[in-house]
Amino acid sequence: MEIDEIDAKILLMLQSNGRLSFRDIAKNTGISTPTVSARVKGLEERGVIRGYSADINPQTINETISIVTLQCRPKDLESVSTLLSEQENVREVMVLSGSKISARLVLESEGKLDAFLGWLESLENIDNYDIERAIRTIKKEPDAIITEGIQIVIPCYECRKPIMDNPVTEKMDGRVHYLCCGSCLKLYKDRYQRLKKGASISK
User: Fold this and answer.
1) Spatial distance between the Cα atoms of 179 and 35, rounded to a whole number of angstroms
2) Which of 154, 163, 164 lies closest to 42, judged by CA?
């Protein structure tokens, strides 16, 4: 599935200012407000728009940013990245090539850093690590680069594999559900109806 010119404009505007109203977006795209609403809803359902939040600079509230890079064995990548993700001060985790993991930390005090490093050194499946404190941020842009024609990759609602071609869609209870093939659609509909029936019985 491709992002067309209108979707690209909507995404760029929302990425720049998540507080824009549908009416403001409609004025800038030349389409109606209900059409903007429907487009945004579709982008949300497909997972392109993950949510809306204020972008707060931690350095303005006296918090520090540090980057830690860890080296571990390939078989430990999943477990170590999961453990890092569970730490409150870890705000982003990326698995890198070469059996490395990069994590971005936001820390309220030096005591928090000492506690984190103590926890990190207690992990047995880390070979080594480096940590550097960010002095200042020169550039910070949203992750997604929005252009017309880029492909939307949606995971199948049943098997969770990426849908590489046009998805099979089914509208149930006012929401569009995305599947990779007819077989997954049948399995998903059966499971969906069973869950819905079970929820009705429990009431």
Assistant:
1) 24
2) 154
CA distance 131 to 84: 14
Statement: the pTM of the whole predicted model exceeds 0.85: no
Element (H, E) at 190: helix 182-202
Residues 131/65, Cβ–Cβ less than 8 Å: no
- The values of phi and psi at residue 128, to 5°, are -165, 170
Nearest-CA neighbor of 104 among 134, 77, 130, 68? 68
In sequence order, what are the residues at sequence separation of 6 or more whose Cβ sits closer than 8 angstroms to the Cβ of residue 170? 176, 177, 179, 185, 188, 189
pLDDT digits (tens, 9 = 90+) for 21-69: 999 999 999 999 999 999 999 899 888 898 888 888 887 888 899 999 9
Pick the CATH number of 58-133 from 3.30.70.920, 1.10.760.10, 3.40.1110.10, 3.40.1550.10: 3.30.70.920
